């Protein structure tokens, strides 16, 4: 979906459709909902303020998710630097992310993106299980559903996610096998 950064209404709709997903991506890294929301809001603000200068040649949603991921990583590095500076009196340099960690991060972004393809009730149930760590019984009680309905919806969610992530996982497998050669 190509969204014009110049059109206010289109950008507002883009914001509403991608805010939650962006927060999930940031939360994967920073582990604090408040910090994740700040990072996402800063990213959207940056996109809006720099809209005339940005030349996005690919999907805006992909650009957004990568920007959120990078800002989250930068936040963590700044926090670590501050902690190390105060703990030891000097700044310690950071090693680059390993390829395996990068692949894991990319998979997390892909999972977050794939969750958006779930039907609304299925998505709600999946997020309660995945994000809030609720059991099927707890989800059933929370949403006033039967436990079997929750099981069925989770089955649907896993089937859709497997389909959505199949090509991505295959690409990772192919990439790491090439690296071994």
UniProtKB/TrEMBL annotation:
Coiled coil: none annotated. Residues 111-154 form the RNA polymerase sigma factor 70 region 4 type domain. GO terms for molecular function: DNA binding; sigma factor activity. It comes from the Bacteria. Residues 15-80 form the RNA polymerase sigma-70 region domain. Pfam families: Sigma70_r2, Sigma70_r4_2. One of its GO terms (biological process) is DNA-templated transcription initiation. Keywords: Sigma factor, Transcription, Transcription regulation. Gene3D superfamilies: 1.10.1740.10, Winged helix-like DNA-binding domain superfamily/Winged helix DNA-binding domain (1.10.10.10). InterPro entries: RNA_pol_sigma-70-like (IPR039425), RNA_pol_sigma-70_dom (IPR014284), RNA_pol_sigma70_bacteroid (IPR014327), RNA_pol_sigma70_r2 (IPR007627), RNA_pol_sigma70_r4_t2 (IPR013249), RNA_pol_sigma_r2 (IPR013325), RNA_pol_sigma_r3/r4-like (IPR013324), WH-like_DNA-bd_sf (IPR036388). NCBIfam families: Sig70_bacteroi1, sigma70-ECF. Belongs to the sigma-70 factor family. ECF subfamily. This is RNA polymerase sigma-70 factor. It comes from Sunxiuqinia dokdonensis.
């Amino acid at each position: 979906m190509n969204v014009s950064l110049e059109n206010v209404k289109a950008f507002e709709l883009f914001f509403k459709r991608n805010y939650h997903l962006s927060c999930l991506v940031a939360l994967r890294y920073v582990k604090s909902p408040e910090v994740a929301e700040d990072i996402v809001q800063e990213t959207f603000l940056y996109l809006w303020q720099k809209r005339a200068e940005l030349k996005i040649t690919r999907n805006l949603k992909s650009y957004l998710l990568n920007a959120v991921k990078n800002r989250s990583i930068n936040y963590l590095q700044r926090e670590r630097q501050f902690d190390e500076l105060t703990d030891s009196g000097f700044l310690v340099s950071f090693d680059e992310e390993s390829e395996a960690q990068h692949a894991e991060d990319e998979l997390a972004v892909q999972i977050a993106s794939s969750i958006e393809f779930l039907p609304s009730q299925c998505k709600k149930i999946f997020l309660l299980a995945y994000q809030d760590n609720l059991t099927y019984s707890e989800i059933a009680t929370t949403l006033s559903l039967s436990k079997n309905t929750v099981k069925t919806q989770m089955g649907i969610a896993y089937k859709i996610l497997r389909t959505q992530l199949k090509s991505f996982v295959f690409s990772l497998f192919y990439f790491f096998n090439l690296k071994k050669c």
